[in-house]
Amino acid sequence: MLDTITDYDSLFSSGATVDEKADLALDAVRALGFTSLVYDYSPVALSPTGDLLTPSHLTLRDVPEDMRTLWCDHGYYQRDPVQSMASRMCTPFIWSYREDETASVLAGYMTDKHAPVARFLHDADLTRGVTVPIHLGRGDLATFTAIRRGAGRGFEREAHSALAACSLAGQMFHDSLFPLLDDRERQCAHVSLSPRERECLRYSADGLTAKEIAYRLNRSIPTVTLHINSAIRKLGARNRTHAVVLAHHYRLLDI
User: Fold this and answer.
1) What percent of the chain has pLDDT over 70?
2) What is the model's pTM?
3) Does residue 104 surpass a pLDDT of 90?
4) Could you tell me which residues come within 8 angstroms of residue 18 by beta carbon, excluding any fewer than 6 positions away?
């Protein structure tokens, strides 16, 4: 069994692509008694109102093929209670969708909102697992989830013994995989601004007026105002100041 940083560093360094590293991660969690793997990365995890944003990268292993479509395109990610808890927790946790397991962190948390996710996981026999939240310095969030298909009632006790190794595997997998993500996956896709709109908001963030921005860009004031108003509309902002705040939140001014 792998149980040190050196072990996992050696394991994941042998994979050259995202898929190869994911296959190695699946081998690692299988050695810990799990059957399936879910990893996701969000450059911005939450909207300004606290709603989960769909991740820009999702890696799945040994789960139903339609899970990607449901989670990314049909809103299941926003209804996933495990993802919601991961956004607010820093330590790895064991979870179960079995209603008779009152010790589960999901007990008392589930509502009708979560019912579609629970039904899907029950149908797929993926009701017990371990999730490792990986909070990063700029507000990025990744989660590494190991699931045991067909797990019985003794799962929690067995998962506790593998919790530390699973957490280490998740952290090392993320560190190994992250450099391979492309530019699109490193950027929040929830809102898209043109380069000129971002530039105008950057100058606005520095306190420049439309007239001063126009001078800097060698453009007319109406053109600059047009770009700023377009950014305000795309961001759903109330005014220019609010647009700058939202653009910072979505890290659009870092690009």
Assistant:
1) 98
2) 0.91
3) no
4) 59, 177, 180, 181
148/146 Cα distance (integer angstroms): 7
Domains annotated for the chain, with CATH where assigned, are: 5-180 (3.30.450.80), 195-249 (1.10.10.10)
Positive/negative CA dihedral, 31, 36, 42, 48: negative
Count of CB atoms situated within 10 Å of the CB of 253: 16
Burial of 173 (0-12, 13-18, 19+ CB in 10 A): buried
User: In which region does residue 62 sit, left (phi positive, over 0), alpha (psi from -120 to 50) or beta (all else)?
Assistant: left
Nearest Cα neighbor of 96 from 156, 29, 35, 30 is 156
3-state secondary structure of 37: strand
* Secondary structure (H, E, C), 105-162: CCCCCCCHHHHHHHHHHHHCCCCEEEEEEEECCCCCEEEEEEECCCCCCCHHHHHHHH
Residues 6+ apart with CB under 8 A from 255: 187, 198
